Amino acid sequence: MQPKSGRRGGSSMLLLVLLATSCLLGSAKPSRGRPRTVRSVLLASDLAGRTEPEECKLSGHKDLHLLSPATACCYGKIVKNTSCCMDQQIAPGVTRKTLQRKGMHWNCTEENCWDTVQGPRGRDSFWLPEGATCSTPRTLYTHGGSWMYGSPDTDSYAQLGSRLAKVTGTVVMLTDYPLVPAGNYSSILQWAIDALQWLSLNGPFEGCDEEHGAKRVPLFVGGDSSGGGTTMSLVLTLAKRPQLLGQKLAGAFFFSPWTNLMCNTPEYYSNAFSKIQGSGKFQDDSKLTMYTGDILFQEVTPENADAFNGNAVDYLGGDFELQTDPIASPFFAQPADFAGSLPPLYFAVGASESILGDSVRVAQHAAQGGCDVILEVYHGMWHVFPMYSEGCGLGEPLWAGAYAINQTGLFVRHIHEQGRLPYKLKVEGPNGGPPESSILAKFWQPSVSKVPFFRYLYDPNVRHFSKVGELLPNRDATYSYKDIMKDLAKQSPWIVLPSLTGAAVTIFVMGFCLGGLTEFGGERAVRRFAHGGGWCTGFAGGRVGWKFSAAGQYSLHYKGLITIY
């Protein structure tokens, strides 16, 4: 039987080992550097799914990398929830009115409508800038939503309408057109024509038609996504049938318009959503992840294109031939289709969109046909990004979204105040004069063709670029054992449980071994001490023992190979 004193010695040693290990973990501090909460650029997966605005706040505002904090916040949230994060605030200084035009109503039921707003529909919304009168220019805006969803008062279209009214200084009218399958290409386009005819004759107040009589105020049209496609169809229809309106449109603007109903532009492949998982990890053991491509439409290329295509066919009422019709599917309009009385055009589109080419191709053909065109492509932006201008709850604006809205205001105001675009290009041949002899000659119609005023825009809040390795989060001096436990609690149970179990087993085995070794050796040492030292067979069959010399020194021997004094 072992002496009781020896067992107490082993238990004490095990307790000391456990306490020492806990202290080491509690006092451990990672290397200093950038704050640990930073998840710059696309490496922002830990921001995803958080709903509180403060959880998107990044501490690296003065040392930004690759993307701005607002963009990184939006990426993280939208990847997890593609329906989240659109603007919530109504622009100050504008007022809202609604109107039910005679005969312009329809019912959204479970049988003919998939939108969440059921019941009687068709009421128009008007957003009036401060000081609006009957002479104030007017804008007809057609909302997006795949022609199947949305209304003037849902999906942040009220917020967008109010912002457009403020920056453009125009009365903005949003129509509640019949959604697919209650409506289709023909009925939705006709709804837009009727609304524009009404807007040209009636203002935001009663009596505007009598006050102006035959005098017409400037008219603009705009739209986003599917609504942008319908708006372009409207522009092309009026170019071929100008008698429908009786006046030329002053201008048209588009946010990420969907114009290719064949859904086969190259960006369906080159801008396909991709989640890149690195082999490394952050210092808090979260995975190193990057997102690229179209974060709103995350299916692989065939599934994404097929979904768009099916949606387009439903919109066209099952008529496959209309998928390449230049009016219904403006991507297939040729430069000659844009000749005539088309107004100046403004496009704002994200560089990461699946339908980037829907804007670029149309802008190029429109300019080649003689239109004045401004095309702005925003780096890293997703579909209809101007509707996220508030920054996805971060508390600071998304620069690209706010800038595109302001550029729209500049475009509209400059036209109705100065009578021309804020800027445009002049193209000359290699020897001056028309470019008939240049490389453009084969695409060029003398004294008619133009090129778009094109800009590829980067967020100026990103001050410099850096290596990916520098994006790893670092810990500050206040990072403690409690912080480690908090971070560990966020990990998957399949990671946490094996890690904790392995650590506990390791600590237990180490304590057991050291305690047993000490207990055995201590007991033998006491015995040998009385006889002047000696050897014993130690733990695990080794030769372990204590010796006491005449000089009063202890020495530990293991298999006769190591001596420690």
How many strand segments? 16
Computed over alpha carbons, the radius of gyration is 35 Å
* Mean pLDDT over the residues: 78
Low-pLDDT stretches are 1-55, 57-65, 465-479, 533-565
The biggest sheet amounts to: 9 strands, mixed
Number of helical stretches of at least 4 residues:
12
**Class by alpha and beta content:** alpha/beta
**Topology pattern, helix = H, strand = E:** HHEEEEEHEHHEHEHEEHEHEHEHHEEE
Strand content: 5-15%
Backbone shape? elongated
| Major β-sheet strand ordering | 1-4-6-5-7-8-11-12-13
The helix content, as a percent range, equals 25-40%
Intertermini distance: 31 Å
Domain Alpha/beta hydrolase fold-3: 140-386
InterPro entries: AB_hydrolase_3, AB_hydrolase_fold, GDXG_lipolytic_enzyme
Keywords: Hydrolase, Membrane, Signal, Transmembrane, Transmembrane helix
Pfam families: Abhydrolase_3
